[in-house]
Queue: 2 jobs
Job 1
Amino acid sequence: MKKSMKQKVKYGGKLKLYLQWSWYLTVMLIVMNILVYVVNVKAGFLVSVFVVLYGLSVGFIYQYYKPRILREMTSFAAQYAQVQKIILQEFMVPYAILDVDGNILWMNEAFSKAVGKDTNYRRNITTVIPHINRNVLPKNEEEKEVEIQIGNLDFSAKMQWISTEVMMEEIQIVDIPKEKNAMIALYLFDKTEINYYIRENQEQRLVTGLIYIDNYEEALESIEEGRRALLVALIERKINKYMANMDGIVKKLEKDKYFVIFQQRRLQELEKNRFSLLEEVKTVNIGNEMKVTLSIGIGLNGSSYLQNYEFARVAMELALGRGGDQAVVKENEQISYYGGKSQQVEKSTRVKARVKAQALREFIGSKENVVVMGHKNTDIDSFGASIGIYRAAKLMDKKAHIVLGDITASIRPWVNMFLNNKDYDEDMFVNHEEAMELVSEKTVVVVVDTNRPKMTECEQLLKQTKTIVVLDHHRQSSDVIQNAVLSYIETYASSACEMVAEVLQYFAEGIKLKAVEADCIYAGMIIDTNNFVTKTGVRTFEAAAFLRRCGADVTRVRKMFRNDMQSYKARAEAVRHAEVFENAYAISTCPSENLESPTIVGAQTANELLNIIGIKASFVITEYNNRIYISARAIDEVNVQIIMERLGGGGHMNIAGAQMEGVSIDEAKEKLEKVILEMKKEGAI
């Protein structure tokens, strides 16, 4: 048995070659001995004696030292393996070996200390590091790296796939599936200190901000002259004290504009209290009839201080475009909104309308033709405003067209009044394809009743010309029409028709609209103001008076708005099934079967639900053409615009909406309720 074991022990590789060199030398000596015999027999015999002695010596030495060499090598290998094990065990980097399923096979002391488990712990890695699960484990000889957190420490976990297939082929003890012939080496690199200094560097960056007083002139006019300086001083004190608490610096730029800088670490605190300065400044009251409101624009994480300032400026434009009384934070492409709970004060001056009217006249006069478009699913406000711009172009003898997609039941009666009318061109209304053929660099594209490119009737037209004019009354979002040569956005206006009516009065002296045109514009104002109940001001009635002088007939317009019996029943059904959510929000679903324009009925239902005592806001969900439409309405207690923005929509503080795709009515309702609960918890509504 002992002999057979010895026979099994064989050398290999370079060691075998090294030990056998003496035998090769013996062969060379024998050849030499034969050659000596050829020369001289006696000399050959003498050499043979020495060759035999040499061969016996080599054989004896080989056989004598062979087992001793093996023992020394085995001992060295064992000691080397033990040294390796000790080195790995005491290795400063946390290290563990896992099987392909993530079960821990072995871990060193550093790993044991990091995860808080004994080195003999053999459960799945997920039980100690939940971030590392089957989805992140490497497969097929790949390497992966994930950022994890264990307690208060941050680690970078690097995992490497190690194949053991060759080793398993030589060890035929158990049959292991081929896909299991691997292990995963897991290293943990402590990045706590690095991350700490990264955060410190981030938090110490300077944030640039702008603070504007929205209604400076109006607030001062509402108080006697002798107390105006005191009012301004109290406002400045509020701003300075608020920013001093944030370790910030305030510099007054103009009478109603301030520049501020502070560390980024303070921004989280400002966002947490939702920029409480917005509400604090409203408490300043020394007899002024009008509350003072602010707009705040914040810019951060730009590539330079100059870019941060540019971000702050863009954020301020958004805040003002959305009606003021809010803070907008712009971090590169990410934009966040806070506040916006107050109605914007109507400006009594009409200077801006006159300036915009003259600018519009110049742009139309410098081009060959005019193409007007509103938003998708054109309503009467969008249609009426388009008719007004059409008339302005005609006054300057320019070829003009209005882009219409699908003509809904709500505007079909109005469109029919212009079709086959000898006073209007046959190509007055064009579809998308015809419009794209008409628009060139010599065309003015006028967009009314929307400022978002994706909401326009034909977005492609915005790319075919550089002369784009925007007239809208909706609050701006981060997605706005870029590079407009003229942008007239007044969020305090009741409707786009009101804005167009004002512009027309300054567009040309003694302008006179046709009765049918005045009816369309007047109808748009009636719909968006809910019969002059919602969001009406002095200028709204002045615009209505201008239209009445042009021949708008109230009775004729009212007849055009009458509903058929099916729509009236659907509206009544939606009101009957309305539910009150959180004791303040009416939510209902409007049936769309057999209705040509269910979204119009949904909007009417939302208006009616506001007449119920205790309802702060109403939401009506309608399904139409495989899309979900939400009409949102409020009086003055809730800003439905910011609610709809969370759902991808927008609008005004008290009139807004949203559209959804790929969801059912129940899912849309669930999302709406979830958003309301989240915003109530945040204090946003």
Job 2
Amino acid sequence: MKKTKQTLKTFIWIIIAAGGLTLLAASGLLDKADLSLSDLWYQSRSASDGKIVIVGIDQRALEELGPYNQWGRDVIAKAIKALNESPDCRPAVIAVDILYAGETDPEKDEMLALAAGEYGNVVSACLGSFGSMLVEDGLGEYRLDSFSMTAFEEPFPLLKAGTTQGHINAMLDQDGILRHHMLELTLPDGTKVPSMALAAAQMYREARGEEAVALPPVDARGFWYVPFCGTPGDFYESISVADLLSGKMGADYFAGKIVLIGPYAVGLQDSYITSADHARAMYGVEYQANAVQALLWEDYKLEADRTLQLVLLFFLLFLGCLLFLRLPIRISLPLLGVSLAGYLLVTRLLYKAGWVCHVLWIPAGLTVLYVGCIVVHYLRAAMEKRRITGTFKRYVAPEIVNEILKEGTETLELGGRLTQIAVLFVDVRGFTPMSELLKPTQVVEILNRYLSLISNCILKNRGTLDKFVGDAAMAFWGAPLPQEDYVMHAVQAARDMAEGSRALSKELMEAYGRTVSFGIGVHVGEAVVGNIGSPQRMDYTAIGDTVNTAARLEANAPGGTIYISRAVADALEGRIRTTSLGDTIKLKGKKEGFEVLILDEILDA
């Protein structure tokens, strides 16, 4: 029952620990660290297929053509014309990552619109603005929508008429990192506007006579996870708008490709920190290039359901905590290492298969639980050490206590086990008559000297001092831990007591004119050893016929004599010298024929 309660209590604590860490993950407090680690783990560079070329409005173009805010729309018109100059080697797509909303200079606006619309291969930019606003739910009720389109900017009418539109919204996650791409904008009238990347990819497939791009899976707001194949600078080949206008770049270089034209200078403020690289900003046109490449490859990743991952997290944390508590550190530490490495490997394989899982939750949770379990193991060990030491230090030799602390024990629970032991009983002969003639303080002093001698002899010979009963004592060998040569240890203790009592008796004779001696009995056999009693009061002792027989031997032994049984003599055959009394000594409760022997000498001591 006690073990059942303890097991139930352990399970409850494991559930609390696993549940608490699961709730911590569910709260979102780990999301920022988890997202950063996921970016580092999942996003990796890979070579593009060379179908995408970036033409940058870079620092060189600004130096040669002047500040960007002074450019007319004719600059990009000329760039588009230069790209489409040769009928045999035009780009499949020209996507201009610049918003041309509203009319400015009619002549230059017309130049841009005519250049962009002449060959039907240009994608122009539009932009939606989002914020919170009240929306009707269709039942006459209004609710606050935190992600509602508040404004929409599109190309001026002439440019819109001659081009395909694609939105250039780049929306950061809550931690300020760009990881996702909005596939489409839905206008208030229900019209869907694809992203510039999607429009460019579809136009490219159409130009090549291929099937349309399969759309990626999106979340509730229409975003999909972008697997970046390039870091900042990977798509850029240092082709400047100035190179097109000066004729340095031949049109054949761009034949059949997707050309992205956009800002590529710090001062133009079109850059973002992306999941591909947290240290360096990526220009918006590079972000578009990564999205286009992912769409062309149809390399889509679906972020695994959060609730499902939380359920898995709880299960693995529960299992891990259970194992960490039950297994020794030499096994649990490698298990933790294998678990962490295995989980990371599984997440990488799942990513390749199209699933994005939280990287931090499970490793962090298992590590925290492991550290917690180490603390629990330490506290348990400290408590067990204190418990063992408190139980045995007064009764057992220090080296045996140390062995118990090393090995651990279950013998401290209420109950016992049958084991082979050697039992010694010793009694002080002649003490009662002498005590009647002495003062109480003298009696106590003499008794303490004798009992100290008994205790020292037992502990010196690695015995367990069971109890003192008046001027008698009981000890045993072979428990609480198995001992080598435990029978010899027992008779050596008996011999040491007999020898020590002679010196003490001489002192008493000189001081008080009287003396005492020991009667000792030793027997070996099976006995039940353990904590006997109740949970409130228990004693670590031995019970059984072996104990009773040793007590009978001692009761019949004259002062200064050590009685042993035939079982002891057989166990130490050739190592001790004895005198057999046959069955002349009648022990209470023993049948006829029980042989009693006197221990005369230990031969190999």
